[in-house]
UniProtKB/TrEMBL annotation:
Reported function: Pyridoxal 5'-phosphate (PLP)-binding protein, which is involved in PLP homeostasis.
Alanine racemase N-terminal domain boundaries: 23-234
Organism: Desulfovibrio intestinalis
PROSITE patterns for the chain: UPF0001
Needed cofactors: pyridoxal 5'-phosphate
Entry protein name: Pyridoxal phosphate homeostasis protein
Residue(s) carrying N6-(pyridoxal phosphate)lysine: 35
Entry's Gene Ontology molecular function annotations: pyridoxal phosphate binding
UniProt keyword DNA repair present: no
Keywords noted in UniProt: Pyridoxal phosphate
Keyword Cytoplasm: no
Pfam families (alphabetical): Ala_racemase_N (PF01168)
Length: 243
């Protein structure tokens, strides 16, 4: 299948998933995950109307944006794209990431929060962020343990006035497994509901669901789904660029 056929097929599936869940299509935003795919493919999908794109690696993301802005045909398109940082961000990269993405999905430590706050401190606008939750409490995995969420949220509210907490994100241990991930998505929604009560913040955003399981995520209340493979095809097996 061609890139645009795959993209349209994903849009069809998303329409179907929303209808099946009794949800309005405009309540769920598709993020096209373009990591390890070139700027030219981003341009093709953006030209078809896609606005939100996700990247995992800071260097790759910033380079791709430069490439897009510099290429004659796509500079206007490039200006209309909303970029999402969905990969783990080391705190020493905070200065490159703060202010450079419409939404950072992966805030998971005080150190990163401090780095982002420092980067944004002179800015007029605030940086929208999500907390990344290690939803199944897996050792070795990035993301915040569910039990540590209220304390980090309190810390950010008290110390990081330039960070705008919008919700939660997760990457369940099982993916490409359809309904197997569904209990994890439900769990993320419950954590969001508790954090709403704890903080009084609206927290409208739930970033969950990938190529293999986004229908289940939509059924459990996802507002952002992050889809790479089913749009852009398989990624090269080579080691990704260093974050
Ligand atoms: C790569 C990635 C995705 C996209 O995964 P696919 O299975 O290719 O759709 C979504 N979210 C995160 C955090 C990722 O790293």
């Amino acid at each position: 299948m061609e890139l645009l056929d795959r993209y349209r097929h994903v849009l069809d599936r998303l329409n179907t998933a929303c209808a099946a869940a009794g949800r309005a299509r405009e309540d769920v935003t598709l993020i096209a995950v373009s990591k390890l795919h070139p700027a030219e493919e981003v341009a093709v999908v953006a030209a078809a109307g896609q606005v939100d794109f996700g990247e995992n690696y800071v260097q790759e993301a910033l380079q791709k944006r430069e490439d897009l802005a510099a290429s004659a045909g796509s500079s206007t398109l490039a200006a209309g794209i909303r970029w999402h940082m969905i990969g783990h961000v080391q705190s020493r990269k905070a200065a490159q990431v703060g202010g450079a993405f419409a939404l950072i999905h992966t805030l998971d430590s005080r150190k990163l929060a401090d780095g982002l706050e420092k980067r944004m401190s002179g800015a007029e606008e605030r940086q929208p962020v999500l907390f990344e939750i290690n939803i199944a409490s897996e050792p070795q995995k990035s993301g915040l343990m569910p039990a540590d969420l209220p304390a980090l949220a309190d810390y950010v509210l008290e110390n990081c006035p330039h960070l705008d907490i919008q919700g939660l994100m997760c990457l369940p241990p099982v993916f490409d497994a359809g309904d197997a991930a569904r209990p994890h998505f439900a769990h993320l929604r419950q954590l969001r509901d508790s954090l709403q009560k704890h903080t009084g913040l609206p927290l409208p955003t739930l970033s969950m669901g990938m190529s293999g399981d986004f229908e289940a995520a939509v059924a459990e209340g996802a507002t952002l789904v992050r889809i790479g493979t089913d749009i852009f095809g398989p990624r090269s097996a080579k080691t990704p660029p260093l974050a």
